[in-house]
Automatic annotation (TrEMBL):
It comes from Microlunatus phosphovorus (strain ATCC 700054 / DSM 10555 / JCM 9379 / NBRC 101784 / NCIMB 13414 / VKM Ac-1990 / NM-1). Gene3D superfamilies: Alkaline Phosphatase, subunit A (3.40.720.10). It holds the Pfam family Sulfatase. This is Sulfatase N-terminal domain-containing protein. InterPro entries: Alkaline_phosphatase_core_sf, Sulfatase_N. The chain crosses the membrane at residues 12-30, 36-56, 68-89, 117-140, 152-178. Keywords: Membrane, Transmembrane, Transmembrane helix. Residues 232-479 form the Sulfatase N-terminal domain.
Length: 538
C-alpha cells in the first residue's frame, strides 16, 4: 500500500509539473483573453521542446532544459507585464523603452494607495518575478528526468505531436477563437522581435517626418492673427474620454454638467463649439497626447516622444511664442525635473512646487484643479500688449479617482489651506484596493465632473471677449472604466465670448455647446495643430 501511495505522489507531482509548463505556454498576454478557452489547447512548443531534448545526449539534456525553462520564464513574466499594460494603458509593454516608467508607476502607487499598500504590491510583483522562474525551472527539470526513465514518454510526445498536427490541419476549435493546435508562445516571441525591429526602422522614417514641416516657415506676422489680443488657455482634462459622454451610467452624470455649463456660459455671453479628436493613447501616458496635439505628429509611444523632444519641431506653443504671446506651462503634475519642457518653448514653467499650494494632497493629483485655475488667473494677467498663452493639464481626474475635493468659493481658496478639513473625510488610500469596478466607474465620473465644473466656473468668472479656452481630454481612461475595445476618442471644445473667434471654425462642423453630438466630426489629434493655425491665420 505504501509503495502505491508513493507512486501516486510521484505521478501527481509529474502531472503538476506538466500543468505548470502547459499553463505558461498557453497563458495569454491580455486579461480579457484569460478564460477556459485559452487553455483548452495543445501547445506546439511543448512537443518541440520535448523532441529537442530527446535528440540530445543525456549529458547535456539537463543544462539545455534549464536554459529553456529560464527562457519560458522570461516569456511568461513578459506576458504578465503585457496583461497589466493592456489593462491600464491598452497597449503591450515596450521591451526597449518602458523600463523608464517604473519610477512614475511607483510614484503613482505611493501617492494614490499609500506606502504600505504600494509596498505590498511591489512585494507581490517581486514574488511573481522570482516565483515564475523557480516554478518553471523545477517543473521543466522534473519533466526532463522523465525522458531518461520512461520510454513511454517518447510515445506520448509523438502521439501529442500527431494530435496537434491533425487539429491544426482540421482547424479544430473547442472554444472560439482559440484553436486546439496552439502556437501562441512562438507567435508572441516572433511579434516581440518584429516590434523591436520595426521600431528601429520606424524611427528613421519618423525623423524624416519631423523635418518635413512647411508650417514652421510661417512668418511671425502671419501666425494666429485671428487671436491677437486674446488670452488663450489650452486645457487638458486628464482621462476625459468619449466614454464620459456615451457610457449610459457615466454619461448620465457628465452630460448634465456640460449642458448646464453651456447654459451658464451663455448667460455670460460665452459660446462653445465641440467635436472629437482621436488620441494616440488610452489609459495613461498623457505626455504623449500633449506632444501629439502640440507637434502635429502622432506620438503613440516613448521612442517617438524622445526623438521628438530632441528635435526642433515647430509646436503650437512655439507658434504663440513667435507671434508675441507670453507662453506658460502650468504643470501641477510635474514634481521633479522636466527637461523636456524646453522643447515647447515656454517663457515660464510652473510646476507643482511653483504653484505654492499649501493644502493637503488629494491622492496622486496633489493639487485640486480649482486651485490650479485660481493660480492660473494670477499667472496670466499680463499686459494686453503681450497676452498670455498657457498650456494647463488638470489632474484631479487622474487615476485612481479616489479623492475628489469640493468646489469652493473662489475667494476662499487662498493658499489651499482651506482644503484641510475636507481632506479629513476622504477615503483612506488602502481602501482603494477593495473597490469594485462599479465603484471605480462612479469615482471616475465624480472626478471628471469636478474637473469640468471647475473649468466651467472659472470661464464664467472670467467672462469677456478677451479669453479663449480650448478644453479637451488627453486620453480615454483605463479599460477598467471603458471596458475593452472602447476606442481612443476624446472630446474637444473651443470656448470664447467673441463670436468672431468661433466664426473662424464654422467650417469645422463642430456641435454648438460644451457637449459634442454623437455624430460630431472626429479628427486625428495630430491634425489639430495645422487646422488651428490655418483657421486663425486668415
Amino acid at each position: 500500500m505504501s509503495v502505491s501511495r508513493a507512486a501516486w505522489k510521484v505521478r501527481l507531482a509529474d502531472a503538476i509539473a506538466l500543468l505548470i509548463v502547459v499553463a505558461a505556454l498557453l497563458l495569454p498576454d491580455r486579461l480579457t483573453s484569460t478564460d477556459f478557452g485559452s487553455f483548452a489547447a495543445i501547445p506546439l512548443e511543448l512537443m518541440l521542446g520535448a523532441m529537442l531534448l530527446l535528440l540530445l545526449p543525456s549529458t547535456v539534456r539537463l543544462p539545455v532544459a534549464t536554459t529553456l525553462a529560464l527562457l519560458l520564464a522570461a516569456l511568461t513574466v513578459l506576458k504578465i507585464i503585457d496583461a497589466c499594460f493592456y489593462a491600464s494603458l491598452s497597449r503591450p509593454f515596450d521591451l526597449v523603452l518602458d523600463w523608464g516608467l517604473a519610477g512614475g508607476a511607483w510614484a503613482l502607487l505611493t501617492s494614490s494607495l499609500g506606502l504600505p499598500a504600494a509596498l505590498l504590491i511591489a512585494f507581490a510583483a517581486l514574488l511573481v518575478v522570482l516565483g515564475v522562474p523557480v516554478a518553471l525551472l523545477l517543473a521543466v527539470r522534473r519533466l526532463t528526468r522523465l525522458l531518461d526513465t520512461h520510454t513511454s514518454v517518447v510515445v506520448a510526445v509523438v502521439a501529442a505531436a500527431a494530435l496537434w498536427l491533425a487539429c491544426w490541419v482540421a482547424g479544430i476549435v473547442i472554444a472560439a477563437p482559440y484553436p486546439v493546435a496552439s502556437h501562441a508562445s512562438t507567435t508572441k516571441v516572433i511579434n516581440e522581435v518584429k516590434r523591436i525591429r520595426d521600431g528601429r526602422q520606424e524611427q528613421q522614417a519618423f525623423a524624416t517626418q519631423i523635418a518635413a514641416d512647411q508650417v514652421a516657415a510661417t512668418p511671425a506676422d502671419q501666425l494666429l492673427t485671428g487671436l491677437r489680443g486674446k488670452r488663450v488657455l489650452l486645457v487638458f482634462v486628464e482621462s476625459y474620454g468619449r466614454v464620459a459622454l456615451e457610457d449610459p451610467t457615466i454619461g448620465a452624470q457628465i452630460r448634465p454638467v456640460l449642458d448646464s455649463g453651456t447654459t451658464e456660459l451663455a448667460a455670460h455671453g460665452i459660446q462653445a463649439r465641440s467635436g472629437y479628436l482621436t488620441s494616440p493613447i488610452a489609459g495613461g501616458g498623457s505626455w504623449l497626447a500633449h506632444a501629439t496635439l502640440l507637434s502635429g505628429l502622432r506620438i503613440d509611444h516613448q521612442r517617438r516622444y524622445l526623438t521628438l523632444v530632441a528635435s526642433d519641431r515647430f509646436t503650437l506653443t512655439e507658434a504663440f511664442h513667435r507671434a508675441g504671446w507670453h507662453t506658460l506651462g502650468v504643470m501641477p503634475g510635474v514634481t521633479r525635473a522636466w527637461p523636456e519642457g524646453a522643447f515647447y518653448d515656454y517663457d515660464e514653467i510652473y510646476d507643482s512646487a511653483a504653484l505654492d499650494y499649501a493644502g493637503p494632497a488629494f491622492g496622486w493629483s496633489r493639487i485640486p484643479d480649482q486651485f490650479t485655475l485660481a493660480r492660473l488667473d494670477q499667472l496670466t494677467s499680463g499686459s494686453p500688449q503681450r497676452p498670455a498663452m498657457a498650456m494647463v493639464p488638470l489632474i484631479t481626474s487622474h487615476a485612481p479617482w479616489s479623492a475628489v475635493p469640493p468646489i469652493l468659493p473662489w475667494d476662499d481658496l487662498g493658499d489651499g489651506s482651506v482644503y484641510g478639513s475636507s481632506a479629513d473625510d476622504t477615503e483612506q488610500p488602502e481602501a482603494i484596493l477593495a473597490r469594485d469596478p462599479t465603484r471605480v466607474r462612479a469615482d471616475y465620473a465624480r472626478s471628471i465632473s469636478y474637473s469640468l465644473q471647475s473649468l466651467i466656473s472659472y470661464t464664467a468668472k472670467e467672462s469677456g471677449d478677451d479669453l479663449v479656452v480650448v478644453m479637451l481630454g488627453d486620453h480615454q481612461p483605463a479599460p477598467a472604466v471603458t471596458g475593452p475595445d472602447a476606442g481612443k476618442d476624446v472630446p474637444i471644445t473651443v470656448i470664447s465670448g467673441d463670436p468672431a473667434v468661433l466664426q473662424r471654425i464654422d467650417s469645422w462642423g463642430w456641435s454648438s455647446g460644451l457637449r459634442p453630438a454623437p455624430d460630431a466630426p472626429v479628427w486625428p489629434m495630430e491634425s489639430f495643430r495645422n487646422r488651428f493655425l490655418a483657421a486663425y491665420a486668415r
